[in-house]
From TrEMBL, chain A:
Species of the source: Neoaquamicrobium microcysteis
CDD domains xrefs: PBP2_TMBP_like (cd13585)
Lineage, top ranks: Bacteria, Pseudomonadati, Pseudomonadota, Alphaproteobacteria, Hyphomicrobiales
Name of the protein this chain belongs to: Sugar ABC transporter substrate-binding protein
Assigned GO CC terms: periplasmic space
Intracellular or extracellular location(s): Periplasm
Signal peptide from the UniProt entry: 1-21
Keywords, comma-separated and alphabetical: Periplasm, Signal
Coiled coil: none
UniProtKB/TrEMBL annotation, chain B:
Provenance organism: Neoaquamicrobium microcysteis
Name recorded for this polypeptide: Carbohydrate ABC transporter permease
One of the GO biological process terms: transmembrane transport
InterPro entries xrefs: BP-dep_ABC_trans_perm, MetI-like, MetI-like_sf
Membership in a protein family: Belongs to the binding-protein-dependent transport system permease family.
Length: 425, 275
């Protein structure tokens, strides 16, 4: 009898917790920030959110960029997909086209009123009469250098293409490569080539009617310049991804590189002297406005269940609150930049020790990111073929045709447009 | 047979060359894993470490889910190996000894599964496994690994069985031994080197499998080493020390299994070759 009473008492005590757990809305977040310290930071924020919202349980399942394009449609079709999924602009059209997305325009408008999004980050997800993801953080390409190296060579920070070439040539001494530029058929090369294109008047790859305009004199000019500059890169740069370029810079084998950020590696794997690290906007052809490629990373809300959708929105709102947002961005200090005005001023962002140390550089990066562009997402309209063009790295492939196969820039760009038209069909 | 000094020197030089060729990448990875970050990416690479640190290993085991990936990989690879052997041995014996309709056609057909590119069946398989509740579960990977390793394993083992003198089997038959006893007591011990070879093949295939593991597994806690590790090392910013430490630990089980049954593997390769 005593045991039965004990059991009844225990059951009564546990009931509310069990009932609560049963009623809690569980939402799953897929993101591609897999390095352990980033996963740990996201988990800290999830724990704080879950504690403040007893009716919601958010859990994370980190994924890999390499597989997520194929994995997500399959998982969604099988009913095993996430409720929230991080995205870059060329990923979103794939899910939109299979009907997995509903517009979050009203939600983005509400967040915009509160936090003031950087316009270009919302534009990258605004087309076909809707907004398909909520911007979360920005990444923009910059020119990185060591101040002491440039000073020793008597070189000013380049602002035009002519100055850039001259600087790279002058810095290429004693086994040092003046400018580390990739020429691999890979996304990093897409990004660096496009960073040159947007500074040479070749921003648009589509006409207004959706036909391609990749093959034009400005694009050819940008490729010619890039190829010319590439002669000052290490011989193995035809197989580079981001990591190799960063290592080249950190080891002082490359005097300058184009990267989103080198801060973390420079600080932990190189000399880490913040006062010597320089960052500048990508030089433009004639010294006019400096543009760059920028990736406005965002989160797509995929749930068709109303309660889960509301829970997802609540979590996204929580992330964008300034008291949380800085901690979120600093999961990788110096790489992820704010997309909101209040986020750019958030105490939680600037108080991180690494951000404090490299404040000067980070302020420059944020400034540069204001002129961010992304191929296929520049005209306020997007065309589905951009996903295939991006996935097949045709911009980088075009460069390889010049650097590796020896074609002229004009021939390679014409062939590049033909390839784009082929995959667009 | 006496060899001249010159020939001996040439042989030693040849061996030294190939040992260096094979061993150098391993040395580079292992020695790099104990260097400090600055030395790893130094402009002038150092063949022998000028510094010593275990910080990369510490980070690997303390701050990442690497141990979880390691255990998952061991479970998947060991289970796949055992299951492959359990199925391949009787299947190979059946193809070798038993007479049944379309034996020859079937024997050739099973190799088609081996030749099939895995990427082609990836999405249909995902749908199939989702229906039976196997997505995000390690048994899904074991099934896939076994399915892909089995055809070649059967093919290989049949060749080893064919190498056993027929008279031994006939003597057992005359003594009244049933088929299963012949297989268990006579054929299996005789083709032990072949079984070791197939075991190593199945283990290494499962240990390094990436495509299915990357798609069929959704949660971090179920990830195997190749997929989990590729995430740990990062995309935009690579932690080279962590990469080298992880790669070093990842080759340990393979080296261990070769050390344990390597002799059988080499002998198995030879026997299969001269059949």
């Amino acid at each position: 009898m005593k045991n039965i009473l004990k059991l009844a008492l225990a059951t009564t005590m546990l009931m509310p917790a069990a009932a609560l757990a049963q009623d809690a809305v569980e939402v799953t977040l897929w993101h591609m920030e897999q390095p352990p310290h980033r996963v740990a930071r996201v988990q800290e924020l999830i724990d704080a959110f879950n504690a403040a919202n007893p009716g919601i349980v958010v859990k994370q399942e980190p994924q890999n960029w390499g597989e997520v394009y194929a994995k997500t449609p399959a998982a969604l079709a099988a009913g095993q997909g996430p409720d929230m999924l991080f995205a870059i602009p060329d990923f979103t059209p794939i899910l939109k086209d299979i009907g997995a997305l509903t517009s979050v325009e009203d939600f983005v408008k509400e967040l915009d009123e509160k936090h003031d999004f950087v316009d270009s980050t919302v534009e990258a997800y605004s087309y076909d009469g809707g907004v398909w993801a909520v911007p979360l953080y920005n990444m923009a390409m910059n020119l990185w250098y060591r101040k002491s190296v440039l000073e020793a060579a008597g070189v000013e920070v380049p602002t035009t293409w002519d100055e850039w070439r001259a600087a790279a040539e002058k810095l290429s001494v004693d086994g040092v490569s003046g400018m580390g530029l990739p020429a691999n058929k890979q996304l990093y090369t897409d990004q660096t080539v496009y960073s040159v294109m947007v500074n040479g008047g070749a921003t648009e790859i589509y006409n207004e009617d959706g036909t391609l305009r990749f093959d034009n004199p400005e694009t050819v000019g940008a490729y010619e310049f890039y190829t010319d500059l590439h002669q000052f890169s290490p011989a193995d740069s035809t197989s580079w991804t981001w990591g190799e370029a960063e290592a080249c810079f950190s080891s002082q084998t490359c005097a300058m590189v184009m990267q989103f950020s080198v801060i973390a590696t420079y600080d932990t794997q190189a000399e880490g002297d913040a006062s010597d690290l320089g960052v500048a906007a990508i030089p433009s052809k004639d010294g006019g406005e400096h543009n760059t490629i920028s990736y406005a990373n965002a989160v797509m809300l995929l749930s068709t269940d109303e309660a889960k959708m509301e829970a997802s929105k609540k979590f996204v709102s929580f992330l964008l609150e300034p008291e949380n947002y800085g901690r979120f961005l600093n999961m990788e200090p110096g790489l992820f930049m704010p997309v909101t005005a209040d986020g750019a001023e958030a105490e939680t962002f600037w108080s991180d020790p690494m951000v404090e140390k490299y404040r000067e550089q980070i302020e420059t990066v944020i400034e540069n990111s204001q002129n961010g562009r992304l191929f296929g997402f520049t005209s306020g309209r997007t065309f589905p073929s951009i996903a295939a063009i991006s996935a097949q790295n045709i911009i980088a492939e075009t460069l390889q045709s010049i650097v590796v196969s020896g074609q002229s820039a004009a021939e390679a760009v014409a062939a590049g447009q033909a390839r784009m038209e082929e995959v667009a069909q | 047979m006496n060899r001249s000094l010159g020939l001996n020197a040439a042989l030693v030089a040849c061996i030294a060359f190939f040992v260096t060729l094979v061993g150098l990448p391993f040395w580079w990875v292992v020695s790099g894993s104990i260097k400090i970050p600055q030395e790893i990416i130094a402009r002038t690479p150092t063949m022998f470490p000028q510094s010593f640190t275990l910080q990369h290993y510490q980070k690997l085991f303390d701050a990442s889910a690497y141990p979880v990936y390691l255990v998952n990989s061991l479970i998947v690879a060991a289970s796949s190996t055992v299951l492959t052997l359990l199925l391949a041995i009787p299947a190979a014996y059946a193809f070798f000894r038993l007479v049944f309709p379309a034996r020859g056609v079937l024997y050739r057909t099973i190799l088609l599964a081996y030749a099939f590119p895995s990427i082609v069946v990836l999405i249909p398989l995902f749908g199939l496994f989702a229906k039976v509740g196997l997505v995000d579960r390690l048994p899904a990977l074991i099934i896939v690994n076994v399915a892909f390793a089995l055809p070649f394993s059967i093919w290989m083992l049949r060749s080893f069985l064919a190498g056993v003198p027929k008279e031994i089997e006939e003597a057992a038959v005359m003594d009244g031994a049933p088929t299963l006893t012949i297989l268990r007591r006579i054929m299996i011990p005789l083709i032990a080197p072949g079984i070791a070879s197939v075991g190593i093949y199945a283990f290494v295939t499962a240990w390094t499998e990436y495509v299915f593991a990357s798609v069929l597994i959704l949660s971090d806690a179920k990830r195997t080493l190749p997929v989990g590790f590729s995430g740990i090392i990062g995309q935009y910013q690579i932690d080279w020390g962590l990469l080298l430490a992880g790669a070093t630990v990842a080759i340990v089980p393979v080296v261990a299994i070769f050390a344990l049954i390597g002799r059988g593997f080499v002998s198995g390769l030879t026997e299969g070759a001269v059949k």
